[in-house]
Design a protein that fits this description.
By secondary structure, the protein is mainly alpha-helical. It is built from 20 helices and no strands. It is a peripheral membrane protein.
């Protein structure tokens, strides 16, 4: 969504809310935005009711998504939005929210830097500084940079990322100024909850299996609890649709029917159909019947059931029974 499109949407939303409410909202905005929105309002002669409904719905979904993210993080928001909106719409809302948040984050200059040049400079920085910067970067780019460090440094940086909870604006600003000074000679220009397990997981989901295994192995030695939490989150239940048919069937043979029914509670129809397609007609009939008569279930119970299915997937992957696709292509051994 471009700035112009965003400003126009804001203008249409304010028009639909009425004079009194709009005036109250406008008073809370920066002067520069008040001028831009006022210009758009002045140049709008007619608003299509369907367009108003669409923009109002988008605003409510984005507001809801922001609230979920603040409550429990991106994965928590994604799970709740999947249940409320369906997988496709939930992905669109999360993607839009991520784009907006990226424009608000610090370290813009590092986000636009050439990955190799950025790596060359970060190789000489302290692990805690590298970790902080990677927290604000695109996961695939952060993964590319992380894989260039030595195995020991990778683990140390990963540990820092996984244990960061909060960082003061003053620290961020100080580091950002230093980085901008170093990068200003070759970067054109153009990544706040910082760090934590989910940030580390996003990065590890984009690196190759060897890099991931090295980092996990080192974390298991230094911080076993962090390693366990990272491993539990590396593959989400929704990712099961990316498995090969034969692999899915191997997983489902090791999952208790009651556990599978609870895990499917509230997921999108696409995921349910994918599971049904990999079961016998009798098993599908039994599973559908159990889902029908299950009744309401606590979100925590559903998530626990889904995590047990994920644990089976991870175990089968580790022993080579199934294959999980990763960020890097496997090397070919002749």
């Amino acid at each position: 969504m471009s700035d112009v499109a965003g400003i126009k949407k804001a203008a249409i939303l304010l028009i639909s809310l009425g004079t009194e409410t709009s005036a109250e909202i406008m008073r809370q905005l920066p002067e520069s935005y008040i001028q831009k929105i006022s210009y758009e309002i002045a140049n709008i002669d007619y608003v299509n009711p369907d367009e108003v409904d669409e923009i109002a719905t988008e605003f409510l979904e984005m507001a809801q998504a922001r609230e979920y993210v603040l409550d429990g993080g991106v994965e928590y928001a994604r799970n709740l939005l999947n249940m409320a909106l369906g997988a496709q719409r939930a992905k669109e809302v999360i993607d839009m929210l991520n784009q907006i948040q990226l424009r608000e984050r610090p370290f813009d200059i590092a986000r636009k830097a050439d990955p190799q040049q950025l790596t060359n400079l970060l190789l000489h920085e302290q692990p805690q500084t590298v970790a902080l910067i990677l927290c604000y970067m695109q996961p695939d780019k952060a993964a590319m940079i992380l894989s260039q460090f030595s195995i020991e440094k990778q683990a140390e940086i990963a540990e820092r990322i996984g244990t960061i909870t909060r960082t003061t604006p003053a620290v961020i600003e100080k580091i950002e100024k230093v980085i901008e000074t170093k990068f200003s000679s070759f970067v054109d220009n153009e990544t706040e909850s910082v760090g934590g397990v989910h940030t580390l997981v996003e990065i590890l989901n984009s690196v190759g299996r060897s890099t991931e295994k090295n980092i996990i192995s080192m974390l298991e030695e230094k911080q076993p609890e962090l390693a366990d939490e990272v491993k539990a989150n590396l593959f989400t239940f929704e990712d099961i649709v990316g498995l090969e048919r034969g692999d899915v069937q191997k997983v489902l043979r090791e999952v208790d029917n009651d556990q599978l029914a609870l895990a499917l509670k509230g997921v999108s129809e696409d995921i349910k159909q994918f599971i049904f397609q990999n079961l016998s007609s009798r098993a599908v009939e039994t599973l559908q019947e159990e889902l029908q008569f299950m009744g309401p279930a606590r979100l925590s119970a559903v998530e626990e059931a889904q995590q047990k299915v994920v644990a089976v997937i991870r175990r089968l992957d580790e022993v080579g029974e199934i294959y999980l696709r990763r960020g890097e292509q496997d090397a070919v051994i002749s």
